[in-house]
Amino acid sequence: MITQAQRQAQQNRGTIFVEDGEVLSISAFPGEQFVMRVRAPKCAANAEPGSFVHVRCDETLPMRRPLSIMRACDDWIEVLYKTLGYGLQLLSRKTPGESVSVLGPIGQPFRMNPERPNAVLIGGGVGIPPMVFIADRLRQAKDSWQPLAILGSEIPFPFDLIASRLDTPWLDAGTNSTMPLLESWDVPTRLATLAGYEGCFNGYVTDLAEQWLKTLSTDAIAKTEIFACGPTPMLKAVADLAARYELPCQVSLEEFMACAVGGCAGCAVKINTPDGEAMKRVCVDGPVFDAATVAW
């Protein structure tokens, strides 16, 4: 008899690739944060917003590290990471031209609903990358999408802050710092922090998001959906916000992973299903889930 895990593994055949990627660039930011661009054509061609890769940080370390994909263009992908442990410290020492083994893309991605073009993208810390990926996909799709990005961090943001030229009339004029990349894509973006960074909203990402939601009409609310990635307490707060406004909300969960392909089940979380509570693996059943189904 074929088990559910075996069926899932069969579904993933031909969708996850192992590539010896070439490091194209690596940029360092305050707070021991790094953005690395890696040539990995198969992964880049198949990645979707919410996908992640399992990266071998060094030949001396057998265990890989899961990293969210921030961008996937042509034959390369970009990842953002913070050197919280020895493995990522080794990864940060890579230089252009060196090789890094990449396993991916992995996971169930975010799903866009054209009937809800007001996409609120909420990212916290190393949860920022999937929001950038969604913004990139939506600006390429054009159509009627109207994304708004709200990014938060309690350490320096992993990009240089600039003053935005894009209007956000629901905020005071002094709250105008933004992410240069999203600004260049004409995606309105505002930043939240309790660290007092210049031009940033003083508060949580959910406080900032609610300021905007309060200005919306009933018709606009009906066309709005929330997408989020970040620490679990932040995601729970986002899920509560979405519930108060009766908005659909998709969240990308963060969990420790060993295999990242569904074999070890070490990243399982409790999800409410039509048949009752069930343990779902963040790596292959997620990482993206309906926020209303997560047993917070």
Please give a quick description of this structure.
By secondary structure, the chain is an alpha/beta fold.
Would you kindly provide a written description of the structure presented here, covering whatever features stand out?
By secondary structure, the chain is of the alpha/beta class. The protein has two domains: 12-106, Translation factors (Elongation Factor Tu (Ef-tu), domain 3), CATH 2.40.30; 118-253, 3-Layer(aba) Sandwich (Rossmann fold), CATH 3.40.50.80. The chain is 22% helix and 32% strand. The chain is built from eight helices and 17 strands. It has helices at residues 4-11, 41-46, 86-92, 128-141, 180-184, 205-213, 218-221, 232-244; strands at residues 17-29, 33-39, 52-55, 65-73, 76-82, 99-106, 118-124, 148-152, 162-163, 177-178, 189-193, 201-202, 224-229, 249-252, 268-273, 276-281, 288-290. Helix 8 (232-244) links the parallel strand 13 (224-229) and strand 14 (249-252). The model has no long low-confidence stretch (mean pLDDT 94).
Descriptors:
single chain; 296 residues; alpha/beta; Elongation Factor Tu (Ef-tu), domain 3; Rossmann fold; seven-stranded mixed beta sheet; 22% helix; globular
